[in-house]
Amino acid sequence: MLSHDRVWAAIDALAARYALSASGLAKRAGLDSTAFNKSKRRSSDGRPRWPSTESLAKVMEATGASLDEFFELVEGRRAAAPGKSGQAVRRVPLLGFAQAGAGGFFDDSGFPAGEGWDQVDLPSRTNEGSYALQVQGDSMLPLYRDGDVLIVVPGAQLRRGDRVVVKTRNGEVMAKLLDRQTSKLVELVSLNPAHPVREIARSDVEWMARIVWASQ
């Protein structure tokens, strides 16, 4: 049976699974950033407020989560680890960040190509065409640590505030927060506050792809 508390708990769990806050999940889904705030979950007289079916549909579209995955969270069932009985998996290409800047690993659109990729098993909810990049070093602290695996989807629609992987034409590959993009300029905020904001000419960007999930 669906309950008010369990539905909201599932939204919180889905946000956490994709490394987002409740407000971050709302913004990614194209909703008001306060739509999932705890203060919005009950009316002023204490009556429960439920998320709309439209809001839930937008959340699942934004995260790539399936309806089955959402109901697993509503029911409080933890998904089995990849490769264990009952959990379908998909094998995707895996590459270390340090190697990603070398030539021959990506096509012009940012999809995996060529030789030298390892493979990793991930839950089947992973989008078709996804690949994995393994963090190496501490340049992405405090958000991502050495050894974390980032799941990247080339060709996904990009919005302000998305975490993205960017490859420049001189071979530099970086994970950043997309702050602004115009026809001439891309502005990127570092995941590590010790690093400055980067402004890159659009013509110098070879490709940019969204980070949809992190295995931490």
Descriptive report:
- The protein has 216 residues and is of the alpha+beta class.
- It is built from five helices and nine strands.
- The chain has helices at 4-17, 22-28, 53-63, 67-74, 97-100, and strands at 89-96, 118-123, 131-134, 149-153, 163-168, 173-181, 185-190, 198-201, 205-215.
- A nine-stranded mixed β-sheet has the order 2-1-3-4-9-5-6-7-8.
- The chain starts with a helix and ends with a strand.
- The model is unreliable at 78-87 (pLDDT under 50).
List keywords for this structure.
single chain; 216 residues; alpha+beta; nine-stranded mixed beta sheet; globular
Given the C-alpha coordinates, what overall shape results? Answer: globular
**Average pLDDT over all residues:** 82
Question: Would you tell me the structural class of the helices and strands?
Answer: alpha+beta
Helicity level: 10-25%
Low-confidence stretches: 78-87
Number of helical segments? 5
The side-by-side strand order for the widest beta sheet comes to 2-1-3-4-9-5-6-7-8
The CA-CA distance between the termini, in Å, is: 32 Å
The profile of the biggest β sheet is:
9 strands, mixed
Q: What is the C-alpha radius of gyration, as a whole number of Å?
A: 18 Å
Order of secondary-structure elements: HHHHEHEEEEEEEE
Strand element count: 9
Oligomer: single chain
Beta-strand residue percentage: 25-35%
